[in-house]
Amino acid sequence: MKRLFMILFVLSVAGTALAQGNKCPTVPANEAAAQKRAGRYFSEAQSMVERGRRAEAVERFLCSLKMTPHPNTVFNIQTLAEEVEDKDTILPTMRAFRDENPGNSATPEIADMIAKLEHNLPLDGPTPDEIAKQEAEAQRAEQERLAALAAAQEQSMSDDMNVLQREREARQAQEEKARKYKVAGITLLGVSAAPLALGVTFTIMAKSAQNDAQDATSWDDFQYYDERSMRFASGASVGYLLTAGLLVPGVVLLVKSKKMRQQKDAPPAHHFDMSFNVAPNGFVVGGTF
Fold this sequence. Notes:
Elements: H1 2-19, H2 31-50, H3 54-67, H4 71-83, H5 91-100, H6 107-118, H7 128-214, H8 219-265, E1 273-279, E2 282-288
């Protein structure tokens, strides 16, 4: 009778300890004894589940997990934690297990469950720390994308400026070339006046000598004026040839200078370029027409 009383007393003390949160007995030094206790707490937890007492079942499973860590026990705790409507009925017990059993191999998983329950997150999803890390990585990736986009746009603007600079330099070079052609053409036209005047003078003198030859009264006088007329005619021809040699290139240079100025002043040829860039709020369309 005394022995039966002692057994009932021990069971009563153990039940009271379980009812005060996650106050499980100390883990036995003997591994077989620990596994035996773990099995007993596991069976009690299953019995609690069958009777709909899920919060108490979580306590029993935690005690079983304390005695002997096992993935099936962790799975059952997670399942019950998802089913319990009032999470505050199980969080204190789970926190006590986490704080009192830092060396238990299942403690990190219980700690993850606690963090997810505290933030109303799905237990099969990422933890708050993992979510924060993912958001930080996404933010960094977005910053890198925006930086790459800004660099691409800056490079595009730099390329456009280089193109404009080259076009400006080309126009300036063309203007300078047209100006030189004009100056050279005008110079040639001005210089051509001298041989033209010489050719006209020789023509007049050749005509005068020819008239004198026709009025000559002797053969000697006729020969003299006739030779003078031929020499003056030859001189006039040389003057006209020199005039043509200067006048034609001068006109060509002036015409070419005029065409170059017309090309400079003409509107650019019609062309169309378009580019697409990704911006934070959508697409950016750019182009030149």
